[in-house]
Structure formats: structure tokens, C-alpha cells
Amino acid sequence: MPQSVIILGGGIIGLSCAFEAARRGMHVTLIEPSELGGQASGAAAGMLAPYSENTEQPDDFFHLCLSSLRSYPEWIRAVEELSGMPVEWVQSGSINVFMHEADALPIASRLQWQNDWGARAQLLDAAQLRKLEPMVSHSAVAGVFTPQESHVYAPKLVSALAAACRKLGVAVHAHAGEIEEVLIHTSGGVTVRAQGLASLVHADRLVVCAGAWSGAYERWFGLSIPVHPIRGQICSYEHQADEVRHMVFASQAYWVGKRNARLVCGASEDVAGFATSVTERGIGRLIRSSNQLFPFLEGRQTAHSWAGLRPATRDGLPLLGQIEGTTEVIMAAGHYRNGILLSPITALVVADLLEEKKARLSISRFAPQRFTAPASRGRVRA
Ligand code: GLY
């Protein structure tokens, strides 16, 4: 088993990998160029919703999501216990709302396969829907209630993970500046040079968890890493706890009531490079969707608006696994819409690989080299 690991990236994925590697006895150094959780992780609505986010089929990605949801109870218990910080895990269940009869037609087959995989979901007619969610518009015709889905307060999970990592002895370097060099040595081991760190960092293994910035590692790994940022604009309203009782999904937006009396409404999907500004158009669409589904919000001012950058790969699937031809480098990036949900399973799989065990579930579909033809793969070792 390797003794030492460098984790590059201090978002939810990097912090989770650091936490699990340290729990398994490894000596971990985490390097984050800027703020811990300062990008997608801190902006996320924190939904743990594998059924609502995967409506087509039970493929390998769905199984990764489901397995992560099932890891959450033990994961939260360990993070809260070690950090002493609550992460506000709310087991609210979710409701997918349909405004037109035609939208509800494909639901039977979705319910069948999702219930085969533990969703315990049920179809709601208009009256049942309003019984569960009384403030929803009278134009809504049907819904699907999925009691297994829940949410966490993502910024609190990030802070708790960072505290738990420190308790476990992880050397956490936030604001370390640009990663200037990554060397994978012919003789084994890796070295990282970061602009803001006084000395080079050496370790047996490297895990790259750089989110939307992962493409920058192409030059060191001789691979094509097509990860690009998809901006998610979000807003929130002041909110009384019983106004919106579940996580609610509609075709254009979702709503999540948080314990801090805020109703979070997300999220746009737009391409704006690495800009994290919000636009009138993006937030305006969320407000229109809110007014349409929840008429009581009409005229209520939004309390806050912000944006995060989801790391999207070309095929929408994460990059998870060792870089072919090395045992030293593991990628855990490109989690797109599901970074918070996928954080425990990603960390467990990464730690399995660090321990040189077989990953606990099939990850071949997520191989980091899948976008690079074998003949085009470059030299990895220095
Ligand atoms: N998972 C929700 C989002 O990406 O907006």
C-alpha cells in the first residue's frame, strides 16, 4: 500500500478523497489553488437525487449514483463525528411535478425500473400532489414522489470535511496558487510544484480532483481531458419551512428548502467560460419558473443569487480511475451535475485503487483515457 498521496483540488471531491485516504492510514497532502470548496461545491444546492437526475435507464452511471446515495448515512455520521460540525442532511424526499398529461406518460416505465432499484416512488394524481405539496400551482397535473431522495447543505459539508481532514492529519494547503508542474517519475512517485508553496511536494501517488479545471492536466498526462465548465445560476428566496416541503423538480428548474429559511431555486445550464457572474436572463428564467409552479412566490424578492461551474465531460460521465500505464495517477473529476451526490462513492473507489484493490463497482465506463486514441497517448513519465 502507498504511504503518501497528493490530492490536487480542494472541492468536495478532493476533500472527500483526502478524508477517506487519511481514514485508511495514508499520509495525505491536499493542494488547492484557491479557496476550499470555492467553486462548484460551495455553489451547489446539495441534492442527493440519483432517481430524479437519471430518468432513462439503470446504467453504470446510475449505479455509481445509487451506490453513493447508499453510502451517505455512514459517510455523514463519520464526517459529523470527526468534525463535530452538522452538515444539515435533510431527508425530505423529492417530488417531480408535471404540468401536462403528456409529460407524465413515460412515467410508468421509469417507475418500474427505479422501484426495482429501491426508489419506492409513487405516481401522484393532482389531488395527491397538492396534499403533499399544498402550495404547488393548480395547473400541475401529476407528480412522482421519491421518498429516498434527500439533500445536504453543501457549504457545511465542505467545511465539515475540511475540519475532519485536518483532524486526521491531512496537510491542507488552500490558496496554493497555480499548479506549475506535475512530474511522474520513471523510478516511481510524483512531485508537484505549486506557485504559492515554498517547497516541492513529493508522494507515492497523485489524485487529480480539479473539477472544471482538470483539462489543464492534459499536458502532463499525454491525454485528452475534455472537461469544460457549464455555469449553473441559482437564486434563493426567504422561505417558511412548510411553504415547500420536499425537493421539487419541474422541467425547467428545481427548488430545495434549506434549514436557514431559504428556498434555493436552480439552475441554469449555460456556457460562459469560467465566468461565475449571474445574468438577468439566467435568474429571470428561474423567477418565471418559480412564479409558474409556486404562485405564492410571485412578487417575492429573491434574497440572493450566485453561480457555480459544473465540470462537464464530452459524454457527461465522470473521469474516475487510474491513468492507463501508471499506478501513480488517479483521476476523479468531471462529476458534472452530481458532484455532491457522488462524493462518498468517488472517495471510496479512489481509496480502493490507492490500496491497490479492485474498485468496489464497475468503473471501466469512466476510464480517464477514453477520449484519447491509444496511438495518440503521450508519455506520462518524466
Ligand atoms: N444537480 C443540480 C445541478 O447541477 O444544477
How would you describe this structure in keywords?
single chain, 382 residues, alpha/beta, FAD/NAD(P)-binding domain, D-Amino Acid Oxidase, Chain A, domain 2, 2 domains, six-stranded mixed sheet
What does this 3D model show about the protein?
This protein has an eight-stranded mixed beta sheet, with helices on both faces. A six-stranded mixed beta sheet has the order 8-2-1-12-19-18, covered by helices on one side. Strands 9-10-11 form a three-stranded antiparallel beta sheet, with no helix packed on it. It has eleven helices and 19 strands. It has about 375 residues and is an alpha/beta fold. Helix 1 packs parallel to helix 11 (about 340-355) and helix 4 (about 60-85) packs across helix 8 (about 155-165). It has two domains: about 5-55 and about 155-225 and about 315-375, FAD/NAD(P)-binding domain; about 90-150 and about 230-310, D-Amino Acid Oxidase, Chain A, domain 2, CATH 3.30.9. The mean pLDDT is about 95. The chain is about 30% helix and about 25% strand. The chain binds glycine.
Tell me briefly what this model is.
This protein has 382 residues and is an alpha/beta fold.
